[in-house]
Each structure stands twice: as C-alpha cells, then as structure tokens.
User: Which sequence fits this backbone?
C-alpha cells in the first residue's frame, strides 16, 4: 500500500502473519484543507474507516470525493466494537481510525483501540497531522520548549482543584482542553490554584472565528464575564516561575491596601509590595498605589 522503506520491511512481517494494518488518520480541526495527501490516500485505500463521528467523517469524505465503508467507534460503543475491529484486522483487513477532529488517540477513544491492537502485535501506522493542543501551543507565545499536556480537567470542582494543585509547582507550560460550558469555572480554579499567570486561550483554531487571547488569568476571567464562551477552546498556561504567586485565603479577604500593608510588615519595601499586589490581583500598579494613598488619608 505505502512505499517507504520502514513500511516495506513491516509488510513482509505482516504478510507472513496475514494481518491487516491499523492507520491512525488525523483529520482537520476546522479548516478542511488541513489534511495530508497520505491521509486522503489511506482513507481511499483501507477496507474500513472506524470513525468517532460518522456524520462528520462522511462530510469530510464527500469533500474529498472518497467513497469507502464507515463504521462508528466512539466512547459509547468502543467496548462492544473493539472485538469486531480486532477480528477484521486479524483476518487481514486494513482499517483507518478517524476521530471527531484532530489526531486519533489524543483525548479521544482512539487511545483505547490502539492499546488493544498493540497488545495483539498488530501493526499500527501513525500518520502525522492536525492536533488542537500543539496548534494552540505553537501560537501561544509561551514556552514550547517543554510542556505538559493534561487534556480535559476533571469536571467535578473538587477533583479539578486537586489536579490543579498538583500542577502548581510544574515549571513546564500546561495545556488543557476545555468545553465552553466549563471554561469560566476552570479559569477561576486556575487563578485560585496557579495564581495570576500568563495564559493563552486558543478558540476555534483554523476556523472562521479563530481567536487567540493572550493575557493574565484575571484579565481573562474578566473578559469571559463580559463574553459568553462559545466554540472549542484550548488553554495554555505559563509554567511556574520565580514570579508566580497565589493569593492565600487570608489575603483574599483583605482589601488591596491591607494586602500591601501585610507585605510591608513582612519587611518588603513599599514599592516592591505594590508591584507584588498589582501582579497577584491583576490590578495596575497606579491603582494599587492610589488605594494605599486613600487609606492613609482616611
Ligand atoms: N484528538 C483531538 C486533537 O488531536 O486535537 C482532540 C479531541 S478532544 C475530544 C476535543 C477538544 O480539543 C475540544 O473540546 C477542544 O478543547 C479542543 N479543540 C478541538 N478543536 C479545536 C479548535 N479548532 N480550536 C481550539 N481547540 C480545539
């Protein structure tokens, strides 16, 4: 089927055992042109396409004039369906896996299938292509040198908080997927657990309403108080550095001026204390200064 050396070597093995191949085929996360020639050819040539969302995949296939067999493989039926797919592969059929969008196996049921296919020593071919996490990371302007991909945070607040607290000391850039319905809650929890760090919200990447919001966490929270979250979001958060600080519960209860006073009483110079409070609370330094002055004048 394919013509590069590694696969030719693999084909000999596969032919001897008469097994098929599994092809992990990334598909566009928005713009339909984001697909490789190899993925298109593979989708034409395999015996079956296992798609997370058959309706969405049919649209893609019709855009590229591909006529092939599709079966659904998603979070609801993956346990029941994997046996069927494994049997077909063992009988010598080639199968492509396509997720809802992006790279199969990254925060979608493709991961489970790959585990089972790998356990049977059936050949798996990873085809490179679109992925929301990496697209958001490279456009973020935050460090892409080392990063931690977390996918979706738990939806229960307690578990989300615990997860974020465990990530608070992480120096690497953090990447999260999030639904528009949970975005505001997640941003609040990020502020509480990680502090007022730099954050980038990548929305609707490669689509008509693509939007990249680069800000600190508090300004981002304020933005989404005024704007209803809509569409698909990937969140990139700066890793912990020397400047990262989180408001303690006690500080949360203090006024801005009281907070500055508290830092001064710890031996921090007034100018530095104002700078710290400004960063921690996401308020301009001038505003902190004015609040301190007006308290002194009372
Ligand atoms: N396997 C996919 C990949 O490789 O990107 C990710 C699947 S995961 C179930 C879907 C999540 O990815 C969405 O909820 C959203 O957080 C993120 N996502 C997908 N498309 C996106 C886009 N166009 N812009 C921003 N984030 C996106």
Assistant:
């Amino acid at each position: 089927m394919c013509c590069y050396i590694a696969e030719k070597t693999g084909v000999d093995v596969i032919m001897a055992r008469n097994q098929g191949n599994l092809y992990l085929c990334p598909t566009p996360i928005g713009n339909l042109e984001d697909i490789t020639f190899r993925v298109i050819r593979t989708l034409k040539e395999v015996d079956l396409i296992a798609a997370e969302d058959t309706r969405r995949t049919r649209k893609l296939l019709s855009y590229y004039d591909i006529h092939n067999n599709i079966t659904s493989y998603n979070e609801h039926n993956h346990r029941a369906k994997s046996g069927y797919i494994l049997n077909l592969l063992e009988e010598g059929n080639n199968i492509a896996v396509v997720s809802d969008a992006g790279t199969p196996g990254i925060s979608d049921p493709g991961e489970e299938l790959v585990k089972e296919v790998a356990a049977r020593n059936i050949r798996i071919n990873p085809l490179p292509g679109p992925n929301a996490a990496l697209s958001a990371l490279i456009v973020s302007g935050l460090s892409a040198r080392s990063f931690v991909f977390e996918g979706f945070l738990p939806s229960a607040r307690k578990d989300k908080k615990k997860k974020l607290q465990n990530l608070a000391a992480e120096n690497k850039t953090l990447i999260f997927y999030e639904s528009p319905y949970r975005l505001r809650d997640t941003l609040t929890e990020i502020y509480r657990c990680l502090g007022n760090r730099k954050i980038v919200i990548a929305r609707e990447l490669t689509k008509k309403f693509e939007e990249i919001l680069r800000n600190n966490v508090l300004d981002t929270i304020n933005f989404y108080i005024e704007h209803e979250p809509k569409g698909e979001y990937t969140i990139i958060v700066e890793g912990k550095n020397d400047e990262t600080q989180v408001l303690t519960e006690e500080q949360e209860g203090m006024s801005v001026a009281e907070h500055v006073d508290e830092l001064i009483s710890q031996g921090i110079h007034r100018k530095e204390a104002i700078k710290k409070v400004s960063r921690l609370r996401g308020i301009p330094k001038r505003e902190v200064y004015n609040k301190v002055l007006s308290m002194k004048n009372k």
Notes: The CA atoms of residues 271 and 289 lie 9 Å apart. The chain has three domains: 2-126, 132-237, 249-296.
